[in-house]
């Protein structure tokens, strides 16, 4: 018989080891407006000026931003003191599954009694308009280089000589 070594019991999963916000419960009309399940969802596609209405844009193009990210939306909301949660979700109409298209933001618009938390922002559309004005003024947007990678790529220079090999004459 082989001698068995000490067996390590499985380690418990601690709450602080969990990554991200706790999972949300299934929706119920009995939840209060302060419960995250009742908060309003905002996807970056709602504000994307590069998308059509059919692809999910909600506002007019002149009120939208070109290719916003969930991090920019989060930064704009946090600077104004909104209660918000970032979720690792993707917009259902989004064709690309790339990381830059991930992200859903939930924000609390109403108090428990149903009144708006802020009189200037009674609904989702007013918050989207605020984000459309705020995101272009973020430091991350102002410091971005305006040239595209194709514009900044070095142009290969020709050697000037026409050293082409052709067919040999017989």
TrEMBL record:
GO terms for cellular component: signal recognition particle, endoplasmic reticulum targeting. It holds the Pfam family SRP19. GO terms for molecular function: 7S RNA binding. InterPro entries: Signal_recog_particle_SRP19, SRP19-like_sf. Keywords: Cytoplasm, Ribonucleoprotein, Signal recognition particle. The keyword Ribonucleoprotein applies. GO terms for biological process: SRP-dependent cotranslational protein targeting to membrane, signal sequence recognition. Residues 1-29, 138-170 are annotated as: Disordered. It comes from the Eukaryota. It is found in: Cytoplasm. Component of the signal recognition particle (SRP) complex, a ribonucleoprotein complex that mediates the cotranslational targeting of secretory and membrane proteins to the endoplasmic reticulum (ER). Binds directly to 7SL RNA. Mediates binding of SRP54 to the SRP complex. Belongs to the SRP19 family. PANTHER family: SIGNAL RECOGNITION PARTICLE 19 KD PROTEIN, SIGNAL RECOGNITION PARTICLE 19 KDA PROTEIN. This is Signal recognition particle 19 kDa protein. The lineage of its organism: Eukaryota, Metazoa, Ecdysozoa, Arthropoda, Crustacea.
